[in-house]
Amino acid sequence: MWQFIEDRREQILINAFNHAYLVVLAVIIGSVLAVGLAMVVTRIPKLEPLANALSAVGLTIPSFALIGLLLPLTGLGSTTALVAVTFYALLPVLRNAVVGLAGVDGRLVESARGMGMGELATMFRIRLPLAWPVILAGVRVSMQMSMGIAAISAYVLGPGLGVSIFVGLAQIGGANAVNYALVGTIGIVIIALFLDLLLLIIGRVTTSKGIRV
Amino acid sequence: MDATNSTTHDSSPESGGGAEISGAEIRLENITKRYPGQKSAAVDGLNLTIPAGEIVMFVGPSGCGKTTSLKMINRLIEPTSGTIHIGNDDISQQSADELRRHVGYVIQGGSLFPHMTVARNIAIVPKLLGWDSDRVSKRVDELLDMVNLDPSRYRDRYPRELSGGQQQRVGVARGLAADPPVVLMDEPFGAVDPITRQRLQDELLSIQRTLRKTIVCVTHDIDEAIKLGDRILILQEGAQVAQYDTPENVLASPSNEFVSDFVGSGSSLKQLSLARVSELDIRQATTGRIGEPAKEAMDRARSAGDDSLVIVDDRDRPTAWVWLRQVKGDTLHEGDRESLHTLDNRATLNDALDTMLTSTHGGAVVTGDNDRYLGVVDFTAVVEHMSVMQTAAQERQEAEVPAESNPEDDHDPDAPMDDRESSDA
Amino acid sequence: MPTPTARPRRKPPSGGRLALVPLLVALLLATSGCLGLGTAGGYVPTGRLTGPVEDTKSLDDATISVGSKNFTENVLLGKMAIILLQSAGATVTDLTNIPGSASAREAMLNGQIQGMWEYTGTGWIVYLEHEKAIPDEQKQYEAVRDEDLKSNKLAWLKPAPMNNTYGFAVTKKIADKYKITKLSELKKVPVKERTFCVESELINRPDGLKGMLEKYDVPLGDPKGVPRSNLKTFQTGAIYDATAKGSCNFGEVFTTDGRIVALNLEVLEDDREFFPKYNVSFVVGEGTLKKYPQLEDLFAPVSEKLTNDALLKLNAQVDVDGREPADVAFEWLKKEGFVKDQ
Amino acid sequence: MPDLVPAAIKDRVDTDDDTPGGTRETVLMAVSIPIIVLVGFGLYAWWHATADLDSVETSALGWSGVWLAMWEHIKLTLVAAVLVVVVGLPLGIMLTRPGFKRAAPAVVGVANAGQSAPSIGLIVLLAMWLGSGFWTAIWALGLYALLPVLRNVIVGLQGVEPTLVEAGRGLGLSNFDVLRRIELPLALPVIMSGIRTALVLLVGTAALATFINGGGLGGIISAGINLYRYSVMVSGAVLVALLALLIEWLGRVLELLTRPKGI
User: Fold this and answer.
1) Which of D150, D187, D183 is nearest to D166 (CA)?
2) Residue D168 lies inside a defined structural domain of this protein
3) Residue A45 to residues A110, A131, B76, C243: CA-CA distances in angstroms?
4) Which residues partner with C98 through β-bridges?
5) Nearest to D24 by CA among D32, D16, D15
6) Which tens digits make up the pLDDT trace of D42-55?
């Protein structure tokens, strides 16, 4: 197994980097969209059931099915992978952001408005910082989920470690089949744990000490 | 009658005293608020003028529209009809946010933003108004001092590290941050224990003496209204004005049955509680300075026939009140300053009784300006004083009976006789 | 009022750093452009052309993307093409491993890839949708070449001698048990035992399983023929192992796959010649070929050397020994004298 | 000083606008989902009948093949779900008993890593180890969906009021009775929501079983991709999504039915 990794060290590292990069990019885009949507929903409460339904139904669509649907639209390669992973990355963050932003104590919001803070200032300086821990929890869930989905996107030539799992599958019975699959799977788990740790650190740094649990 | 007069607050505008007025007058004209789907209006045609630099207490049973009326002054709730003026500009002409930056807003428990330090909480409005950071920082320190919180210790603390009373003080400081002419308070002292509440009330009074803002404060506690209010607005269902007058008049002559029930039976006893500690004859107990040889102080106390000793610091501020048998060691030391409940000489007899109930000496140490030691008062002194006032009040009662014709005019001769807005439906 | 003591003003340390996040996000998004998301192709070596192809005109102003289907042989050939093109100076995007012929064909048609090794039989029946195949290899190639050039502007270069046709393989045990060597003898095998390991493409292709089973009188879905539940679908590469392990009796194989020999499977003879000829040829967009006519002589000598047993050995090195296709291709090109180390 | 008006009552005149909250929403969801699924399926069948499919598409979307795939998909999901509950529930219970409490974080950690691994990776690795086929897919799906059930069982049981448990013991109930009659019923809502999450995960991941001959609707999707036929791709995706919605709705109904009346 080590000889296998030794021979392909470069290729594995490139794939690992691409995998992490694809997921981080997708999670960021997804989170920014989700928080934006959640802010709109907080301003217009009637939209809340719609947002909740979207994230519930969205999660039931299997990623493999979505990749199939996207193929004709965005073709083979990284675009389809990015769009698919971003779609799934968005959902957990959206659900948590809606809960977080709406969950801010009404009296705090009222005293903010009472002091003359505008709608936007209240959203960004009061609601968002207070909801931040909940949102971050959503981002962690979405990151973990996206790692797996990014692997499946290798079926339509998406970048990342997924390709070595499929190569392993194609060479079942061959000498290195198990190695390929193991490198793919364990590589993704390691990246997932590493990014999760990174998120925890970012969480500690950006959450105000006043509300850090 | 003179007993009641002399108890008038010295804060009524004419009698001056304290800094000049920095508050603005508020006029509510025919204010109505009807919620969709509600049959009766929450506030139905309220007319009210709040003189500049005065504390006006909105008080009444829950659901009488006092909070709604308060929130219409900074447009947190928009009135269905009617106009409100602050100073002489109509508040509906300017943007709500702009208006609110010039109207302090303090609610129960301070509702500080937990993710901001005390300093950043207080600095919010000044920053919104674009003050430069030095001015903001100086202002924050100044305000923290004003509410008796040492800036260096509390500045960078987070709300969850403060006690209820401290949070409320920061809430008040935050409300006063931009030096607004008007400050609105919605049950500011509701969420703290009686002793802290009394201390916060005293501090608000002393702050008002220096700043002379126009403060509108909602409370459901009539005692608080009487203590704090220069005027009290008693509201009935639909914010109907039951009475709008000084605490004395409200106590002395409640305008209708609702008010007398609401103010509570034996209003004369309540009126008594208005008397100030400064009117009592304050006894001089023996005092000892921190670091003074204990034996000397104790001999002095024994010769004066005292069995207790008040320990004061170099700025003459009392730090402890100990029985002689408790004195240990050869020099007097500071003792636990926090646990000593002192009494401001401007506090009411009501507060005095509360403090005495909790102190082990059956009395209270009285302090004057800058917490300087004045003396001690004990239970008997308060009771004697009240009985003297009670007999005076009875004589006044009999004197009044024959002169039926015009009870009004000799009621409080020197109070200005502007025509009260009696409640119009 | 005690005068406020002068104090060094410290900005509150935490909380403000939430503003860091948008900064971080902007930075990452900005870099996404230049780093780009490499596709799954991965690293392919480059060498210098020698031997018969040494003096081909350089391609250094060309950017060509080369694709391949996702079974070993086609990936191998794809990597070979990439090495040749890169050694000739072209910048090449590696889009090998496309799932399924149809997706690969679609990528060729919409220009996502400019070059790919394709099989004459697949072109004739699946892409150009003809019912009957042309038995002769050369005529089949010419027919496909002419029609695809005319209707789809795709140029099929000189075909290789090897013919990688579909086949069905059995283990020795099954072969002896039912004494079966030819597909026409399928009828002898009891219905229950007519189990097939196939990949989803073959089931639905016009030149696929349905046609073959009808040709050999054991129609699909017919209780007397081959019931649909007898079919087991696998990924192309996984069938060999499944057949060897006996999860089905008849496994769909490519006749040039190295694992037939390695797992000592026996390929049943297509005695009624149902399957067409599948000679491989490098297909290039007409525009690309016009711009770089030297591609013709770059690929011609190479495809000449691509015989069945050459491919059998190459495929085995990947599927059996587990080596990287790119390394195997590079080594073969060097051995055959087309490329030298840089 | 008698305080006439109890301090607690605050003057809240502004109307209390909390909508009847959860109930209306769940009822709406409970009824609308099956209708959406049926309508969706009807639309699909209507499209299937009327669309002009070429030979490849008709063979890929033949009804017999679709029903077989659908049935396999349902079997995959439900069998894996049963496996997950049969393993997850007792394991979760055990981990909250005093004796094994310390092991809980470790076991949850393993399950957590299990889920962070890509499902496709698990499927392929297990296929290599156990050979391909239905049961390998079941094991892969089970390992993948174990975390939500296990975690919710633990969280649910830990969420039960300790005082209630003591009360039960105080009445002389045996540990087993306390578990059966007090702890489990109270923890049931949380456990059921864990099972519902697992069901949703399983339906989605079952689509990948096709790579190792596990059957299921995934086959239609991969055929669609290989044959580059939109219609086949979309059909596969739509069918799996509809099935996923139906099973998620089933989970919700199960959750509502098993909710003890009292809470």
Assistant:
1) D183
2) yes
3) 17, 17, 19, 59
4) C69
5) D32
6) 988 888 888 777 77
Q: How crowded is residue C12: how many other Cβ atoms within 10 Å of its Cβ?
A: 18
Any idea which fold A2-206 has?
Answer: MetI-like fold (1.10.3720)
B405: pLDDT strictly greater than 60: no
Q: Are A146 and A85 in contact (CB under 8 A)?
A: yes
C-alpha distance across the termini of chain A, in Å: 43
Chain D residue numbers touching A165 (CB-CB < 8 A): 118, 120-121, 124
Domain ranges of chain A: 2-206
List, in sequence order, every residue forming a beta bridge with C166; answer none if it has no partner.
Answer: C254
CB of B327 within 8 A of CB of B290? no
pLDDT of residue B5: 34
Q: Which among B146, B155, B156 has the least Cβ separation from residue C1? A: B146
- Domain containing D97 — which CATH number? 1.10.3720.10
Contact criterion met (CB < 8 Å) for B218 and D4: no
Residue D128 lies in a domain: yes
Tokens 């890593």 -> residue: D113
pTM of the model: 0.77
Which C positions 282-341 lie with beta carbon below 8 A of chain A? 318-324
Span C243-294, pLDDT tens digits: 988 888 999 998 888 888 888 889 888 888 888 889 999 999 988 889 888 8
Q: Which of C77, C19, C57 is nearest to C302 (CA)?
A: C77
Among the listed residues B223, B202, B209, B213, the one whose alpha carbon sits nearest the alpha carbon of residue B346: B202
Report CA torsion sign: B92, B98, B100, B102.
Answer: negative
Q: Which of A53, A71, A150 sits opposite D225 (nearest CB)?
A: A71
Instruction: Please give the tally of structural domains in chain D.
Output: 1
Residue D18 lies in a domain: no
Is D14 within a domain?
Answer: no
Per the structure, the complete domain to which residue D99 belongs is given by 76-258
Q: Which of A211, A100, A35 is nearest to C25 (CA)?
A: A35
| Separation between Cα atoms, residue D37 and residue D45, nearest integer Å | 12
Q: Tokens representing C282? A: 């490098």
Across the range B384-397, mean pLDDT stands at 75
Q: Flag whether pLDDT at D86 surpasses 90.
A: yes
State ipTM: 0.73
The structural domains of chain B, ordered by start, are: 16-267 (3.40.50.300), 278-381 (3.10.580.10)
* Beta strands C91-98 and C63-69, pairing class: parallel
